[in-house]
Amino acid sequence: MGQEVVLFHSVLGLRPAVGVFADRLRAAGHIVHTPDILDGQVFDSLEDGGRMRDEIGIQQLMRRAHTAIADFPPEIVLAGFSMGASVAELLAAWRPGTRAAILMHGAFAPATFGIAAWPSVPVQIHYANGDRDVDVEQVMALQTAVQASGARVDVFGYEGGGHLFEDAEFEGHNAASAELMCGRVLTFLGELAG
Predict the structure, then answer these.
(1) What CATH number corresponds to the domain at position 45?
(2) What is the pLDDT of residues 113-123, one digit of tens each?
(3) What is the Cα–Cα distance from 56 to 12, expressed in whole angstroms?
(4) Cα distances (angstroms) measured from residue 111 to each of 35, 106, 117, 121, 176
(5) Would the N or C end of the chain have less CB density within 10 A of its end CB?
């Protein structure tokens, strides 16, 4: 049985790479939603996307994300790329019934968001080794928190590629790492169903 997945984009917006990844999950039998929380704006640089994120504000982006999932059943998988990983992590921590969180290109210590204890939601984390936009100590803090909750946590570092390495139209793209990450995500989703 497939999972219902909500996949949040990065600060670059809802670029074609998000659709490509979502389609790979759909082809494996999963239902995948790709909400646009930047209202159609798409960027070619993290700096430009980051400026727009800051202009809109994190609270407003989170309101948009909450609205995007408001009508979905509780038992969804929340996933995201970079900024979208942060959105997915926060929603997974706050939304009862969440099946799992898949965080690509970043994660934060729950305490960063004022979360005292992780709510026993399984987590899978992916990032490129040496990515300056990923704080590995934060990733490890989340890993520790998920382990303490008794939930499953998988953490994968990739040798090839930069930030957003699955995006074929973005600097740092690495096809081998992208394929490996997608395969691991598909395995994780399949195991959730089991």
Answers:
(1) 3.40.50.1820
(2) 888 899 999 99
(3) 14
(4) 26, 15, 8, 16, 34
(5) C
